């Protein structure tokens, strides 16, 4: 049984691109922040009560190796709070927490039936994430080691969340370091806010309620970047130009706009992420009209 849970924990870590089975102290600190945020949303402490968001945050923390997140998410499945009730998922999470040394998990485990091997969807490894990991051989840990401590948490969050949006972590990091230098409190003269520098219109468009909440902000920025990559069919330069200047400007100029700021922005991103193409999900949005016209003319 112990071997089974070693494999399960490792699988959870691969699903989130984090080392759950061998989490280091920095990862556990990051997980504790996510757990604190999840608790606040679960119980409505200082923020509007939002059980679904709490479950997402707990799942992110489980990937980072948090036994408290395993235990709390297990109770959410056991009680049907924010997620559909599922005793099999609860049993798995409680067993993971027991394996990870949680003091109260064994008592909870006895209330939800036998372990069946069922795993919540949010912890299952995705094929697209594995393909990204194979494509990008960049040494994330070496990059992390080069950063001051106050930036490491943002980098860990980005590298954990990016694959969930089918974004290669290195591209997401390129956007974040260029936008805010990983500052969750950053505000621009144009009222762009947070790590991914979301303007209010973009935040609203991608359901970000608090742009200074790092997890919400990063998820919103990643959702926008995923949309842009689909809209420009994987063309990195056009997608990041759209992130900086808006897709309307890119469509209007039928390419990277002739703004010095945007052109320098694209050059900086491509220096950090030296690839011109990125996988994209064509189901997210139809291609830009100017790309469709260009393809039609080229035939």
Automatic annotation (TrEMBL):
Q: Quick one: a GO cellular component term? A: membrane
Domain of life (superkingdom): Bacteria
Q: Which GO terms describe its biological process?
A: peptidoglycan metabolic process
One Gene Ontology term of the molecular function aspect? peptidoglycan lytic transglycosylase activity
List each copy of the Transglycosylase SLT domain by range: 159-264
Q: State the family named in the UniProt similarity comment for this chain.
A: Belongs to the transglycosylase Slt family.
Q: What is this protein called?
A: Lytic transglycosylase
């Amino acid at each position: 049984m112990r071997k089974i849970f070693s494999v399960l924990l490792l699988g959870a870590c691969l699903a989130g691109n984090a080392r759950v089975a061998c989490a280091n102290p920095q990862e556990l600190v990051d997980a504790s922040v996510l757990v604190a945020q999840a608790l606040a949303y679960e119980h409505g402490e200082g923020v509007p009560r939002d059980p679904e968001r709490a479950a997402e945050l707990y799942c992110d923390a489980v990937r980072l190796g948090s036994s408290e997140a395993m235990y709390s998410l297990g109770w959410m499945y056991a009680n049907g709070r924010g997620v559909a009730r599922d005793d099999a998922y609860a049993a798995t999470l409680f067993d993971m927490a027991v394996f990870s040394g949680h003091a109260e998990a064994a008592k909870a485990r006895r209330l939800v039936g036998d372990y069946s091997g069922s795993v919540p969807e949010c912890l299952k490894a995705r094929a697209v994430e594995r393909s990204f990991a194979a494509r990008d051989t960049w040494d994330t840990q070496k990059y992390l080691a080069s950063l001051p401590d106050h930036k490491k948490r943002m980098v860990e969050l980005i590298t954990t969340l990016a694959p969930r949006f089918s974004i290669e972590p290195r591209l997401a990091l390129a956007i974040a370091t260029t936008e805010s230098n990983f500052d969750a409190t950053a505000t621009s003269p144009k009222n762009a806010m947070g790590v991914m520098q979301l303007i209010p219109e973009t935040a609203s468009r991608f359901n970000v309620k608090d742009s200074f909440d790092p997890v919400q902000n990063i998820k919103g920025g990643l959702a926008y970047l995923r949309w842009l990559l689909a809209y420009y069919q994987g063309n990195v330069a056009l997608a990041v130009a759209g992130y900086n200047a808006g897709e309307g400007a890119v469509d209007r100029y039928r390419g990277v706009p002739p703004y010095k700021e945007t052109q320098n922005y694209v050059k900086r991103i491509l220096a950090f992420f030296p690839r011109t193409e990125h996988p994209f999900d064509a189901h997210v949005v139809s291609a830009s009209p100017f790309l469709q016209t260009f393809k039609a003319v080229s035939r």
